[in-house]
Amino acid sequence: MRATLAAVLGIDVSLLQSGMGGVAGPELACAVSNAGAAGCAGGYKLVGGPLSAMLDRLTAGTDRPVGVNLIPEVVGPVELGQQVAQVLDETPPQVYLSLFGMPGDAVFDRIAAAGRRLVVQVGTVEDGVRVADRGAVVVAQGIEAGGHLLGTSTRDELVGALRERLPEACLVAAGGIGAPAAAGRALAAGADGVLLGSAFVVAHESRAHPYFKQAVTAADAADTVITDVYAIGWPNRRHRVLATAATRDPMQVTKFIGKTVVEGKSYLVPRFSAAVPTDVTSGRIEEMAMYCGQDCGAISSELSAADVVAEFARVLPGVAVAEIGKG
Ligand SMILES: Cc1cc2nc3c(=O)[nH]c(=O)nc-3n(C[C@H](O)[C@H](O)[C@H](O)COP(=O)(O)O)c2cc1C
């Protein structure tokens, strides 16, 4: 019998909230952690003073395990090293690190040496095995996922293949889990817990623009597409988004279509930017990158983060030793 995700992370419910850049600030992360799951704030491109300001708010908002998400391929090895060092130096031990995609060995070593918990999202069996070998929690992302896609398998195919190779590993399923029914299917495929992105986009504490939240609650699977058009700021990685005028006509001129603010600094938003519209973005929101998973038909109303956690807690394991994946 293996430990549940809840036991590994020191939380009550085997549920991870994705550290979505722009959407998942300290407010959402702390609300999720205070409700008994593992919240996570998106670090994205923050470094130096802006990252410190975010970390201060995160650690002021909860004493429970909470994460900081970083994306190795977006920032590159040098800046990732700076971000990791800052998180390790400026946060207490209950703050875990969450990575989207594989880092280099030095990052694994550094996080292990600091005794911090690490969660890494992958899209292939090969990467999942490498992550498990380094003692980290493996998040298996299927192509049903909202956001950038790390592989080409469906969620439960990848979960099943990883479980076969890694009978003892802590394995989390991600992609297309909008309601407890899909979480139940992922557990049956061999997962110890789940990671949710889109279901938390619509949470009251999420910083997604109101138009984006409303669009997710109104959408179903047929309204999502896999595309590569939102490449400015994060090139060369396919992503699942709500279909927009930009996905329908990728040959349009790249010009500024809006404005936004990140940690107090103003930016213009070009058409085809990878940045999501947040509550401080203005302009043509309806043309921007609204990442959304395939199970959005099951996400029908805006709820508090605590209500989302409570809804999924009914089907997810707690800290008791897992019987899941047996029989
Ligand atoms: C709006 C949005 C933004 C995302 N941004 C990030 C991110 O910054 N870092 C990350 O690790 N994953 C990010 N993801 C991907 C999630 O980690 C996860 O793979 C996905 O949300 C799971 O599918 P679901 O949306 O169907 O739950 C994002 C997903 C969404 C929907």
Summarize the structure.
With 327 residues, the protein is α/β, with parallel strands linked by helices. 34% of the residues lie in helices and 19% in strands.
Structure description:
The protein has 327 residues and is an alpha/beta fold. It folds into 2 domains: 5-205 and 299-313, Aldolase class I (TIM Barrel, Alpha-Beta Barrel); 211-296, no CATH class. 34% of the residues lie in helices and 19% in strands. The chain has helices at residues 5-9, 26-34, 49-61, 72-90, 105-113, 125-133, 155-165, 180-189, 198-201, 210-218, 245-248, 305-313, and strands spanning 15-17, 39-42, 66-70, 95-100, 118-122, 137-141, 147-148, 171-174, 193-196, 224-227, 239-242, 256-262, 265-270, 282-283. Strands 1-9-8-6-5-4-3-2 form an 8-stranded parallel sheet. Helix 5 links the parallel strand 4 and strand 5. The protein binds flavin mononucleotide (FMN). The site of flavin mononucleotide has 30 residues, from helix 9. Residues 18-21, 23, 42, 44, 69, 71, 100, 121, 141, 144-147, 174-177, 196-199, 201, 276, 291-293, 295 line the site of flavin mononucleotide (FMN).
CATH-assigned fold name of the largest domain: TIM Barrel
Tell me roughly what share of residues is in helical segments: 25-40%
Total domain modules = 2
Radius of gyration: 18 Å
> What is the distance, rounded to the nearest whole angstrom, between the alpha carbons of the first and last residues?
12 Å
> Could you name the CATH class of the largest domain?
Alpha Beta
Q: How many helix segments? A: 12
CATH superfamily label of the largest domain: Aldolase class I
- Report the structural category: alpha/beta
The biggest beta sheet is recorded as: 8 strands, parallel
Task: Characterize the overall form.
Answer: globular
The strand line-up of the biggest sheet is 1-9-8-6-5-4-3-2
> What low-confidence regions span 5 or more consecutive residues with pLDDT below 50?
322-327
CATH architecture of the largest domain: Alpha-Beta Barrel
Total strands: the figure is: 14
Report the order of strands and helices: HEHEHEHEHEHEEHEHEHHEEHEEEH
